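Give me the fold.
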Amino acid sequence: MAHELLQYRNLKLFWNDVALSDQLQKLNTPAYVYSRDLLTQRFQAFQDAFPKGRLHFAMKSNHNEALLKHLHQLGSHLDVVSIGEAEKAIQCGFRPDQILFSGPGKTQSEINKALEWGLFQINVESADEIQKIKKTGMRARIGLRWTPGLDVKTHPFIKTSHTDTKFGLSFEEIDQLIPEILKDPHLHLQGFSLHLGSQILDLSDFDLAFSSYLEMVLSLQKKYPEMDLKTLDIGGGLGLNYQNSDVDADTQRLQDYKKIVERHFGKIPFQILFEPGRFLVARSGGILTEVQVVKKTKNKKIVVLDAGMNNLMRPVLYQAHHQVLPLIQRKGESEIVDLVGPLCESSDFIALDRSMSALQVGDKLWVADCGAYGSSMASDYNLRPRALEIFIEDLESLRA
C-alpha cells in the first residue's frame, strides 16, 4: 500500500502527519515551507544506500541558507555551478574541499577564485576551460566531464548528455586532452564526471550510460597508466513522480538505482561521487498560497493565486505537474479550473484544467513538492517581493 505524504483526514490536509491548516493558516503568503524532518529522512536514505559514496548536494536545486546549514550538519558535500554558489556554501559552513565545481561556462574570474579557495574538484567541460585553468599557473584538481551522446527520456530542457549539447566533452575530445593535461605539472586529473540530466524516471538510461562510462574510464586508464585517478562522479538526475506523494515508490526507485550503481561500480577502487538534488529536497518543501480572485469567463473558471511563475517557474518552463490542494477541502462536486498567478503575463500559471473542490477568495492552497527548483529559480518580476522561506518546525519561533 502506498505511503502518501499528503492525505486528507476529516477534510484537513496533512503533510508528513502535520495538519497544514492548523500550522499555516496565519502564515503570510506566498511562502515556501520546508520540513527539516523530511529533509533528514531523505538525505539519510540516500546516504544509507551508498555509505561509501560522497554525496554532493546539487545546490542549484535549493540554496536556502537554513537548508544548506542543515545539510552541512547531516554531513553533506556540495555540487555548485557558479562561484556565487561556492561563496554562499562557504558562508554556510562548508569547507572548500567539500565543494565540487561544475558548469559549462566558467569564467576566468570564477576559475581563479575556485583555485585560490582550494575547491575539491573542478569538473572541466571544454578545452577552453583547460586553457583558463593553465593560465592561472596554480595547481588544480580536475575531473573531465564526459558526454555519452545518450538522449535520455526526460524533458528536452533538462537533458544534458545528448550529442549536440553545451555540456561536457566527447570521448575523442577527452582522449586528445589527456596527454596535454599529463604534461602539465600543475594539473592533476583525479577523475571523470558524468551527468545525464534531471528528473530521470526510466532507470535503464542510467544502466546504459554507466556501462559505457565504466568502459570508457577503464580503456583510458589502460591507455594512460600514469593517470592518478581517485574519483568517479556519476552525477544526479534520479527523478520522482509529481503526480502523487508516494514515498514508498521513491524508496523503491532509490533501491533500484542502487542496484544499478553497485552492478557497475561496486568493485572499482575509485571514490564514487553523487550529485543528488531533486530527490533529496523536492518532497521536503511546498508553497503556501492564497486565492485572490475567482472568476468565470465564457469557457473557463479562473482562480488567481498570490503565487505565480515568479515563485514556481517549473509549470511554465517545463510543463511540469505539481499537486495543488486546499488546506481544507469542501464537500460537494469538483470543478475544472485554471490556477494562475498574479503577474501581468498570460503564461503565468501554476496548473491548468485542474479538478478542484469549489474554491473561494481567501482559501489557502498547498502546491506540493516545491523544495527543488522553486525558490532557487524565483524572480522579482513585476517587482513582487521574494516569498518567505521557513521550516515548518520553526513556525513557533516566528509566531513568538
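The two ends are 40 Å apart (CA to CA).
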